[in-house]
Write a structure and sequence with these properties.
Strand content: under 5%
Low-confidence stretches: none
Helix content: 40-55%
Structural class: mainly alpha
Strand order of the largest sheet: 1-2
Mean pLDDT: 95
Shape: globular
Largest sheet: 2 strands, antiparallel
Amino acid sequence: MSPECWKNHELHPKTADASAVDWIFVIDSVNFSFWSEVEDPEAPDRFMLEYKNKLWTGYWSCCAAVNRALDEGIPLLNADYLVQIDDEHVRYIFRTTKGVMPMLAERTRNLREVGRILKEKYEGSFTNCVTKSQNSSQTLIQSILTDFPCFRDEGIYKNERVAFYKRAQILVADIWACFEGKGLGTFHDIDQLTIFADYRIPQVLNYFGLTTYSQDLQRKLNENCMFKYGSDDEIQIRGCAIHACELLVQELNRLLENQTIPSHVNAIMLDFYLWDYVQLHEEDIRKTPYHKVRCIYY
């Protein structure tokens, strides 16, 4: 587990510079709802995107689409372009080889929103927002939440406001990992981030038996029910995943203290590891149902 593994992914930027920050910002502005109605990769209607002679699904289809657009000369990292992007452009950028990527209209709205705010407040580049955070992940997250409404991942549970901020946190974490904790990726409080509560992390925790569900909730999962964003079930699943991973991080660091060369793990590293594990063992893990939600927050 290390931040360096982020760059090892084929579709991620290899150079840590201002352009990489803007690439990450665009990606995480539309980083949501990539699960397919059809799990079987051979099914004709499971959405897939072709780039450089490979087929990409899920999050990677988003990265491939953005990279393909940039290769074609589409200025997708330019705020002037984003602020006027329309559904037709978005359909072209995220065009698929088979199936259709969900929630394209919502991706258009997010891109237009962030483009407008980048122009109004940050001279067209998210790098300026990062610089103003003065190396604090929490300050940066607060700026994201204050200025960019599409990142406000919040709900009400038992009359109390709960916040997950999955996309805001992963945006900061991706910058930290891309820069390997240096330069623009230096955050003195990076360990305050939690895991990024989506649908894959709860799935893999359940697969390993680290979480179990009530009979009623398990039935809903087995019956492939659609969950509503902000419902009690959905909030509990995500909240328990965060708590379970906090306990895992504590135990991992306790074990690592006894090693000859002490090392340290934070929630970001654990999240990256678990998410990659799902990708590598997809066929096996597919047998464990996950909660399905259509929303812009994950």
